[in-house]
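User: Just a sanity check before I run the rest of the batch. Below are the structure tokens for the first item. I only need the designed sequence back.
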């Protein structure tokens, strides 16, 4: 195909020697050649990864044709232990950003491809409210080395992330689900059972007492009828 395409293009380089049909054929062949070019494979770093603590997961995505970025995708604990409210970026050095939800928070960006992985990006740690430069190196299909550093990469600190299962629900999806009913504590459950038992015993005793009162009342002697008044006997002479 390449030989024929070059032949037609060379013939059509001089418009005077090229017919309309030849132009059409050249265009069709050129279009087929470009459309059949295989698309670039998606970087293997793309996906959802558990961080080194296992208490959160980050989703790495393609943000521009040449850069990767990431956001918080899953949280083991989505609410504050103190207030019970959803976690926010409360340690951010910028006061106007301290109410941003941790779920979905951007934590990496501007990572560009280098020979061995991705580098020259930034990473934000909401647990400390600090940002660093970052590099990614794929150890294997399910293991990612994340290096945060200031200035010189070899002076940075590396962490190992592991690939999360494909069915891991996002914290946004979990937030949309209705809350599960809280289990009744064993002590409270026992108290409820004891209260119910006492109530039943009381009601049973009251029923027996009422029946006994009725029976006792039925055995009382009925009052005797008063004797009819009779005239006194007449005395005989």
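Assistant: Here's the designed sequence for the first item:
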């Amino acid at each position: 195909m390449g030989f024929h395409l070059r032949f037609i293009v060379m013939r059509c380089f001089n418009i005077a020697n090229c017919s309309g049909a030849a132009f059409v054929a050249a265009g069709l062949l050129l279009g087929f050649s470009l459309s059949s070019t295989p698309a670039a494979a998606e970087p293997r770093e793309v996906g959802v990864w558990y961080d080194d603590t296992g208490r959160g997961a980050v989703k790495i995505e393609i943000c521009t044709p040449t850069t990767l970025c990431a956001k918080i995708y899953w949280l083991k604990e989505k609410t504050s232990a103190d207030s019970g409210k959803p976690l926010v970026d409360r340690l951010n050095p910028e006061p106007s950003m301290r109410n941003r939800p941790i779920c979905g928070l951007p934590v990496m960006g501007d990572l560009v491809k280098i020979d061995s992985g991705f580098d020259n990006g930034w990473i934000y740690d909401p647990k400390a409210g600090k940002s660093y430069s970052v590099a990614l190196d794929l150890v294997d299909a399910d293991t990612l080395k994340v290096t945060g550093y200031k200035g010189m990469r070899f002076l940075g600190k590396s962490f190992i992330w592991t690939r999360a299962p494909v069915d891991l629900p996002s914290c946004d999806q979990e937030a949309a689900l209705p809350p599960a009913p809280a289990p009744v504590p064993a002590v409270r459950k026992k108290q409820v059972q004891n209260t119910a038992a006492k109530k039943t015993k009381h009601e049973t005793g009251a029923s027996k007492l009422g029946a006994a009162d009725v029976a006792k009342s039925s055995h009382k002697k009925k009052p005797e009828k008063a004797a009819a008044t009779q005239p006194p006997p007449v005395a005989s002479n």
